[in-house]
Design goal:
Blueprint lengths: L7 E5 L5 H9 L4 E5 L3 H5 L11 H17 L11 H10 L6 H15 L4 E5 L7 H7 L4 E6 L2 H10 L13 H10 L2 H16 L7 E5 H6 L1 H12 L11 E2 L8 E5 L9 H4 L2 H17 L11 H22 L6 H9 L3
Parallel strand pairs: 1-3, 1-4, 2-3, 4-5
Antiparallel strand pairs: 6-7
Helix pairs in contact: 3-4, 3-5, 7-9, 8-14, 9-13
């Protein structure tokens, strides 16, 4: 079996198992993981295609991408730290390179210096950029992760707690942003948008859809199917991933393997109001994906209080996320679009 012609991209709604999938794929002898560069949306806009980027802008972009990859998502750029490597990648770019060429050069370089053959990039929000990925990277393979939206809700509710569960470097402003982002209706609507964005590519032979629950219940069979689609041989060592990244349990890198205890924690971690709002918002799509609805009876006052908080949460979330978008209108249009 030969390596696929393009990179592999892991996409999906946030907290849907994309990090676990990246760890699994990175364990493959051919694959090098690129963890959340957030190129699309943060560093790219549609108007950038075909527009040559000057050396200073390309140098700045490469510095940011390498810093995130090496030092972590929240790391500050240290002037001069990666200058030699940045200049090397710059020298390998085609003439009149645009921003996506810089991005491609970064991934190719990172993969090569680690002795691997295929870059595997994980940014959940790239689920809204599948068409652009396929245009920019002919031959690319895309792994779409789905997860029960109630489990996503619980994970988003607790995501800010990752700071005390093994994640290093999370600043207080990120904790505030994560707490402001959480509202059951917002999370359910974003899950719907992700679902619809993925389903627009259903049947594409380069796109493989995976339920997080299937990965945890039948990891070997699920990964064999994925490997068949992306064009790499299955390796049993892929499944030896550390127990890390949960919003509900402390990281434990001494334990390895796919965790099987992450299915229905939402039944205890969410209240009836949260479950009801999620199911009313996403119920028809949940049925399509095989997620059964639970019988819940939320209290009137609890529902009222939750809905009264919504506009304040929405305004706060918009303000705290504004700096993360290169083209605000385009990014919001993609993430809020419903079928």
């Amino acid at each position: 079996m030969t390596a696929p012609q393009g990179p592999i991209f892991i996409v999906g709604n946030s907290r849907s198992g994309t990090t676990m999938m990246l760890r699994v794929m990175t364990n493959h002898s051919w694959v090098h993981g690129i963890n959340e560069p957030h190129f699309y949306g943060t560093y790219w806009a549609p108007a950038d295609d075909g527009k040559a980027v000057d050396k200073a802008a390309a140098r700045e972009l490469l510095t940011k991408l390498i810093t995130r990859q090496r030092d972590g998502f929240f790391a500050e750029v240290v002037p001069g730290k990666f200058d030699a490597e940045v200049e090397q990648v710059l020298g390998e770019l085609p003439a009149q390179a645009d921003r996506k060429d810089v991005y491609a050069g970064f991934m190719a370089y990172e993969t090569r210096i680690h002795g691997k053959r295929i870059p595997c990039e994980k940014t959940p929000q790239n689920i809204f950029y599948i068409a652009e990925i396929k245009r920019h990277f002919p031959g690319a393979k895309i792994i779409v992760m789905y997860r029960d939206p109630r489990a996503v809700l619980l994970s988003q509710k607790r995501k800010w707690m990752r700071k005390d569960l093994g994640m290093t470097g999370m600043p207080e402003k990120e904790v505030r942003r994560l707490r402001m982002n959480y509202h059951p209706y917002t999370i359910a609507r974003l899950w719907n948008s992700s679902f619809d964005a993925a389903k627009r590519h259903a049947g594409d032979p380069d796109v493989v859809e995976v339920r997080f629950e299937d990965l945890t219940v039948s990891p070997e069979a699920t990964m064999q199917r994925i490997c068949g689609v992306v064009g790499i041989p299955y390796e049993p060592a892929m499944l030896e991933v550390p127990h890390a990244g949960s919003s509900s349990a402390m990281d434990d890198h001494t334990k390895k393997g796919i965790r099987t205890d992450r299915g229905e924690g939402w039944k205890k971690g969410l209240d009836a109001t949260e479950i009801a709002i999620c199911q009313r918002t996403s119920g028809s799509r949940m049925a399509q994906q095989g997620y059964a609805l639970a019988e819940v009876a939320p209290g009137t006052w609890s529902l009222l209080a939750t809905w009264l908080r919504f506009p304040f949460k929405l305004i706060g979330a918009f303000a705290l996320n504004l700096g993360r978008m290169r083209n605000v209108v385009n990014t919001l249009e993609r993430r809020l679009k419903q079928a």
